[in-house]
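Might you be able to consider the sequence and fold that I enclose below?
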Amino acid sequence: MTKRRTDFSVIGYWSEVKLDIIRDYASVYSRILTAQERPRLEHVYIDAFAGSGIHLAKDTGDLVWGSATNVLLVDPPFREYHLIDLDRGNVETLRTMVESRGSGPYDPDAVHLYNADCNDVLLAEVFPRVLYENYRRALCLLDPYGLHLDWSVIYTAGQMQSVEIFLNFPILDMNRNVLLRDPRKADPKQILRMTRYWGDESWRSAGYSSQGNLFGDEEKTNNLRVVNAFRERLKNVAGFAYVPDAMAMKNSRGATVYYLVFAAQKPVAAKIVRDIFRKHGNRRG
């Protein structure tokens, strides 16, 4: 069953900014990859937490196209689209939108929908379709609401050399549930979620430090140190060559809700994203 308007997720202004960033980069990415001839490449869009394709703006109540819907409208179109969501209602709403097509330039037969856990289906079915040696490339959006992503997905994308990612780094979830001022108070289940996302327990040295403490006690570090430590993991462990400074996505009070992180293998990709981040960086709701 497709969703009614009242069932659509409500998003804050920072999410609208993120959607504009993804749309802007996907448009440039598709033009560049379509124009390349030596060798000719096939480019694919992957949305691991695709949602229903439509949201409601928190401030205005207006309908807002989701990331997947925005990319379906990009011209020239991608060769394939792989849209994943755990919620069956979201997937059925996406299916209805894909089949109705509207003014989108895409071929509906090129859209693959998955009602599944992205941590499973990406590794088993989707990533094998975008192998470097098959002259295929992919733009992948990993945009969970919180710590709902396995490091193995991120690591595999980096090792493949054919996948660029936008990643939601959920610092708010981390601070609320794991990176507490007293680390002894963190729930073991939340710690496991953090380790699963980060890939190992090196998050502890990023999130806490005893330097400068006269008694040698661990004290919580700041958000920027945590996200920059993860950016280093993306480069030095996952194998992405370029990971520009992350963009802090802030609410109307100026608090950082999450960081938008980009990782790629080409310097031109990083330059384009830095320009797009600057373009949208000063927007406020």
In short: The longest helix spans residues 13-35.
